[in-house]
């Protein structure tokens, strides 16, 4: 699942959340040569959900996340429309959950959601600074608040009603503000139960009390059916995946150095989409702009996910096409996987691989936002 890269600029009276969607991936080593070893399987495109125009149930604004829910349903979070839409396994629209607004069961700027162990949904709202909970049919059941400066920026459900998320922590040490990026687990309050990984973040303190975060660190994570957590460090020079038991003990580690791979000229020309969310005196505004000043190197790892058979899917960002290394919990390489669609570096979508199956979303499309559904097959 691709969590996106979030950077937060904090001022005394406002917080700005920036998400870099698309563009900043990394290309590098060639795909493994055709020598005896792990098989290469195929993620075959089955269908798409989304229209450029027409039925509003299928016209997306800004897709933030898509996941399989119970019964094979597909749930899609649309930040611009401020709702969670449910579709059948065949792509037929079923219903929406939530609506724009500041009240219970409403969203101001929803940034991610999780499917919980009871089949319900949890939606993180960057502006409301809370997580709203709904049952499996979409009825509002409550919320968790008091997160600072924002709720977890990406979340995924775990066993027994818990969820794992990526959050930024900020503390004042004397006159110095310190920030960190952490992957942690929560259950019944905004205080984390377990912190799996924590990385310091560098702050640039400017005049007027404004603090801006510098680039990095960047992490992605996935949660197994038993609650194990696997974290990928998003880097342009390193392949790094670490696994943790539900209680936080390290159970697996994969690390190797990698050469930097520059973006192609096509990628540089396309730029990337910068999403900004600003809150001033309780009033929120959001906007998306295409920026040309992009980081010039691809990331070695683009995303990580765990499928329904507890296989860890690591998407390599340093190739011109989607390519996955698939491991078991011990770190043994099981097989490789590629798509049967010739996505280019500019057109490749963000993959979300989870317990229900294989999805991808076109967050930053050249045409219009859409969801892709895939199935895993042996090569023909």
Q: Fraction of residues in helices?
A: under 10%
Give me the Rg, rounded: 20 Å
Q: Report, as a whole number of angstroms, the end-to-end distance.
A: 26 Å
Approximately how much beta-strand content do the residues carry? over 45%
Q: What's the β-strand tally?
A: 32
Low-confidence stretches: 1-29
Any idea what the shape is? Answer: globular
Number of helices: 1
Mean pLDDT comes to: 86
Biggest sheet: strands side by side, in what order?
Answer: 26-27-28-29-3-32-31-30
How would you characterize the largest beta sheet? 8 strands, mixed
Structural class: mainly beta
Give an account of the 3D structure:
The chain has 380 residues and is an all-beta fold. 2% of the residues lie in helices and 51% in strands. The chain contains 1 helix and 32 strands. The strands form 7 sheets. The chain has an 8-stranded mixed sheet with strand order 26-27-28-29-3-32-31-30, with no helix packed on it. A 6-stranded antiparallel sheet has the order 18-19-1-2-24-25.
